[in-house]
């Protein structure tokens, strides 16, 4: 026979559970966000998504989008986990680092071969950054009442 015991105040809150580690689905969410932007821009709107890299031009295809997002997502989560051992305020340090990385990454779309490609690449960078921030940083709801 199982005895039902209602939750008490000592039960972990969502914020406590959330602060134990980043959500690993964050990488998948970042990939979905990037693919959504890619799908709207390339197959639907017909944007030629390519960027200049040095003397050559690179076509940004779906495989490159998924691979880059996977690498960046895993690096973001790994950095947060490392900061949890190195810093007293790891989420703040991560947010500052992530903001700096986002600003630097926006230099990439500046190398796009056209305005539409540049806007698409910038939107992808922002979508991935947003997904990573939602998944890696603790978001707490305000208390009502």
Automatic annotation (TrEMBL):
Bilayer-spanning residue ranges: 24-42, 62-81, 93-112, 118-139
Pfam assignment, any one: DUF6069
Highest taxon, organism lineage: Bacteria
The UniProt record lists the keyword Phosphoprotein: no
Keywords: Membrane, Transmembrane, Transmembrane helix
Signal sequence bounds: none
Protein name stated in the entry: DUF6069 family protein
Organism lineage: Bacteria, Bacillati, Actinomycetota, Actinomycetes, Propionibacteriales
């Amino acid at each position: 026979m199982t005895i039902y015991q209602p939750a008490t105040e000592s039960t972990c809150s969502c914020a406590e559970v959330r602060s134990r580690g980043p959500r690993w689905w964050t990488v998948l969410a970042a990939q979905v966000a990037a693919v959504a932007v890619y799908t709207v821009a390339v197959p639907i709107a017909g944007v030629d998504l390519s960027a200049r890299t040095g003397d050559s031009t690179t076509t940004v295809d779906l495989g490159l989008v998924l691979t880059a997002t996977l690498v960046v997502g895993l690096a973001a989560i790994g950095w947060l986990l490392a900061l949890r051992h190195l810093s007293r305020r790891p989420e703040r340090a991560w947010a500052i680092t992530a903001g700096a990385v986002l600003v630097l990454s926006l230099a990439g779309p500046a190398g796009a071969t056209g305005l539409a490609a540049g806007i698409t690449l910038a939107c992808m960078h922002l979508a991935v950054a947003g997904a990573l921030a939602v998944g890696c940083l603790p978001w707490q709801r305000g208390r009502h009442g």
